[in-house]
């Protein structure tokens, strides 16, 4: 009898009613939106602050790259840990670390200290992003993942939409210290809101001792490594990671030399924020219809078209200096992540067993951190040797190249299309 009750409770946990799912989706969306907002306030102002103190292009690229350094190393084991300790704990720890990094910037430190804050912020951000992704994967029936991910991705869009203009207004009106302080306060809200989460981690094993957790990681990481290898042999996973890496390599400009270029041609921080936000605002027009568009056109054609549009938008930037033309270029650039990143995340989710969603997202995030780390360093070298304007031509070439490869491999990735 007791076993029957436990089975019924377990079933209710796996298949909650729609009202419960809606509450979970709203809460995790608030957490994600606030996290992205805090991140954008910090990351938009950090390069502009470095520009104001005379940091070189190469130093600026190195500081921006440092945001992805720790996530590149810990993304995969972090997924394993989250599946053991629960997603709420990971979010609270990550957002708390982000508070510390933001408040350290209030004192306007020299370049090496800014780099340390970005290391901490990158670590904090990867914990929150991984945990929220895995939470969405496990909070409802697997058949609802595409719909839930599409709705949840709106919170990322809203964070990217409101974060840059707020960052610009704060900096223009009160200066860098207040802007960084505001980023810390928003991160504090993430910690507060996440305390209201109902845990849905598969293992349901919060409050593990550190020694027990360490042994679990040592035992499971080799197994996860083997799982990762098997996942990487699937066309669906290769498509997911390949497209995401290509796009993220270029997106690093949004938090580095795109900001610097606009500042150098005379734009205020507020107008820079509006242009950055426009890329996401235009994307939000399409994201509510993502699931329907995948069903109508297919995943690969949508990604192919968005890569081409983004290439045109990025390539046009160095030839424009008016606000309206740059606004139109930003709209085109916004199409690329609008389709490629949610589709990539869904592809990765459907490729893994239900109880290993945190690990699958860890694998994807580990792959994603490579371009986020290499991109700013690469574009910093290009800017040093050829000038800042040249980086946008190179970025456009990367997106066009990705579109060509995707088109040439369309038969090979047909399995991935069939997943939808």
Commentary on this structure:
56% of the residues are buried. The N terminus is likely disordered. With 420 residues, the chain is mostly helical. The chain is globular and about 55 Å long. It has 18 helices and no strands.
Number of helices: 18
Mean pLDDT: 84
Helix- and strand-based class?
Answer: mainly alpha
Number of strands: 0
The ordered string of helix (H) and strand (E) elements is HHHHHHHHHHHHHHHHHH
Helicity range? over 70%
Please compute the radius of gyration using only Cα atoms. Answer: 21 Å
Cα-to-Cα separation, first versus last residue:
40 Å
Summarize the structure.
The chain is an all-alpha fold. The protein has 18 helices and no strands.
What is the strand and helix layout of this fold?
Layout (H helix, E strand, L loop, with lengths): L1 H13 L3 H35 L4 H10 L2 H17 L1 H19 L5 H28 L6 H30 L1 H19 L15 H23 L2 H17 L5 H8 L4 H16 L5 H8 L1 H18 L6 H28 L6 H30 L1 H21 L5 H5 L2
Short descriptors:
420 residues, mainly alpha, 18 helices, 82% helix, 0% strand
